Amino acid sequence: MADQLWIGRFLLHRTAEDFGIIASLDPKP
């Protein structure tokens, strides 16, 4: 479970970099 979460975050940030956006995992109110 933890590995999948880590890989998901990694891919999120990698794809966000490709599109020039900032991926934030901060909880939204």
> How many angstroms separate the termini?
25 Å
The best one-word shape is flat
Mean pLDDT: 84
Largest sheet: none
Please provide the count of β strands.
0
Q: What is the C-alpha radius of gyration, as a whole number of Å?
A: 10 Å
Low-pLDDT regions: none
Encode the helix/strand succession as letters.
Answer: H
What is the beta-strand fraction?
Answer: under 5%
Helix content: 55-70%
Q: How many helices? A: 1
Helix/strand/pairing category? mainly alpha
Provide an overview of this structure:
The protein is an all-alpha fold. Helix content is 62%, strand content 0%. The model has no long low-confidence stretch (mean pLDDT 84).
What key phrases describe this protein's structure?
62% helix, mainly alpha, flat, GS catalytic domain-containing protein, 29 residues
Provide a short characterization of the protein structure.
This protein has 29 residues and is an all-alpha fold.
What is the secondary structure topology, with strand pairs?
Layout: H1 2-19
